[in-house]
Amino acid sequence: MTTNPLAVLGQRALNVLRGLGHNATFFADLLRNTPAALRRPYLVIAQVHAIGNLSLLIIMASGLAVGFVLALQSYYALVTYGASESLGLLVNLSLVRELGPVVTALLFAGRAGTSLTAEIGLMKAGEQLAAMEMMAIDPKSRVLAPRFLGGIVAMPVLAVLFSSIGILGAYVVAVQLIGVDDGNFWSIMQNGVDVWRDVGNGIIKSIVFGVICTFVAVYQGYETQATPEGVAHATTRTVVISSLSVLAMDFVLTALMFTHKQ
Amino acid sequence: MGKRSIETLVGLFVLLGILGLLFLALKAANLGSFTSSGDNYTLIAKFDNIGGLKVRAPVRSAGVTVGRVTSITLDPKTYQGVVKLDMQRGVQFPNDSSARILTSGLLGDQYVGLEAGAEEKVFAPGDTIKSTQSAVVLESLISQFLFNKAADAGSTAAPPPPPTGTKK
Question: Looking at the whole model, is its pTM more than 0.80?
């Protein structure tokens, strides 16, 4: 039987559509199971610990490093225009609007996303999820929804901490090392950053990224092939899909939030 | 890890997040300067040209910020820019004070500068500032400069025609 290339193409397109639909129904299922997860708050708290607390080290270290580098690079870019006093403002806006949410989401996908996918995938490979269903316990409400909620709670906190540590790191480099004026650093920054438009929009972004990363991680874990190989593939797929989705969504959100009508 | 200690750690995590948020909002953004000690009163100033003045620009007197610009509209009858100023309650100005649009630094943001007058009576809320001076428009300044230069150069000869840039 000869394979008709058009039929193959059509089959692939249909598979993509079917995958999207499966994603959507899974998402709806997760949302439906959220109240049940909230009725056992300890499950959610344990997940916030596993996802958020244990990611603190990498997020804070990265925030510090990004703050240092941002201060150094911005200084050398600004000093040619005599605008080196605006260093604090530039660093703050870069962190709070863009780098905080996005870099935190990428690190989150790498650290917490992979651990979620691997954990759920191994549960599936070890038939624990099937055993739960046998006992009439919906694994979505006991296992998946708490992790989903935990990720959504942890992500904005991590993004805020990333931005804060970044600004403090930039302060150390700019004021102590380079010699930018201390008072100017903070006052020009305070005058130029709007709480609702900049910090608030950054937090909205981080919540959206949290939903994306956690959902992708949980979905890939649940749908993995029940073999060790399958779990490994699912883990890498989580990182790739989360990262690409976060970056695409970042463009959309930035266009929506920060383009002015003037 | 015991149940208690996990809950404590998560509580610390969330607390750290809230502290970070407070730091960002108060120290790194403009929330601190928004809260006013009392209620504010509104003054209105009309300018022929507001230049690059924006909403939320500061209102300063002797360099000290005493208020904010809350709205900028065009008066359809007189074609003047109507600027509403939100002034701090603690500072009252004599009702012959003048308002000018100044620039902070050479190329910085523009703000409204108030110079106190000599009258005894002060502005009531909602009053209009009568003496105003518009922003300096760079092009008018340049054409005025060129016209003066040409006038100096041609003062011995016949008076030159005015450059096309100046108003009649």
Answer: no
